[in-house]
Design brief:
Blueprint: H1 2-27, E1 34-38, H2 41-51, E2 55-59, H3 74-81, E3 85-88, H4 96-104, E4 116-118, H5 152-169, H6 174-193, H7 195-201, H8 203-211, H9 215-218, E5 222-223, E6 226-227, H10 234-239, E7 246-249, H11 255-261, E8 264-268, H12 279-292, E9 296-300, H13 306-315, E10 318-322, H14 335-349
Parallel strand pairs: 1-2, 1-3, 3-4, 7-8, 7-9, 9-10
Antiparallel strand pairs: 5-6
Amino acid sequence: MKSFRRIAALTVSTFMASSTAVAGSDDVPVKDVLKVVTTFSDYASITQEIGGEKVTVEHLSYGDQDPHFVPPKPSLALKLKDADLFVTTGLDLEMWATTLLDKARNKKIMDGAVGYVTVYTGIELLQKPTTALSRTEGDIHIYGNPHIQTSPLNWKTISENILIGLKKVDPENAAYYEERQKAFADKVDRAMFGDDLVDLLGGQTLTQLLQGGTLFDFLEREFEGEVLVNRLGGWLEEALPFRGKKVIAYHKNWAYFVRDFGLEVIDYIEPKPGIPPSARHVKEVVEKIKAQGIELMLVATYFEKNSPRMIEQRTGIKAVFLPISVGGVPEASDNFELVDYWIAHIKEGFGMEPAEKGRHRYRHRTGQGTSKE
């Protein structure tokens, strides 16, 4: 009997110890993934590409919102409260983010902390002010144009800055993040230039040529009996029919896109950034459109529609309303689909034949997502 009691007691104590160990393991928080919060959905999409299964990503604004003005709701501050990494442009675009960071009181992601990432570093900013600034100039950005995400080539630099942040807060998985960032950059190059030119010249060389304004002169050269431009693919090849075209824009948020794809902005519906168009300014824009035969107007979907529609009626110009960020329309669930959408609708606005829906002219080497060819 005593032996039985000893065995029973031992069994019970073993069971209790094992139960306690299990309960204890449940009580100890194990962080399998990093929580990353980004200001914009574009940065969230890029972060997910690099972070893969090691991260969960949330964003504070949506693709149909004005990026300059996001209400600092308590629910947004709550997202930041337990974040490991915060990703922002780092210029004077997301002024609203400072209020949210203050409300969240998360020391890990405050400006200057390891978990605070600015993605503009290393990008050559356009439209830097050259004169003394005053409020009469409108909602001008003192460092230059902050809408850097409208250039696919800028995504590579953005991804490098995000990579640095991920490695700082999660050094154990540095190699994993590095591999995925490298694959993402290659994916961008192939989407932009097509496989043939990337394989021949490399993405870095092509990027330098395009951003320096010399790519298309270079592509007039022959290689193995063929003009190099015939090897061009990707978005640049798809956008060739409207390269060199003149357009009107509502706001200066397309500066990097038009640089990459060769559109020329003649004037803006806003007389100055952030200042609503006056009747006098609209009249001046209408006169320019008629005089120069401008066919298309670029308008981010978050702007008011009355002025563009009125200008359409007076001139016959086509207003093309485009989401500025990922998720602004259902068809743009990531950065690549967003640029597909932009190019297709710009071509449609010019009366040009769009590419086959959903087609990408690049090889999907990353193992991330579904290949579209």
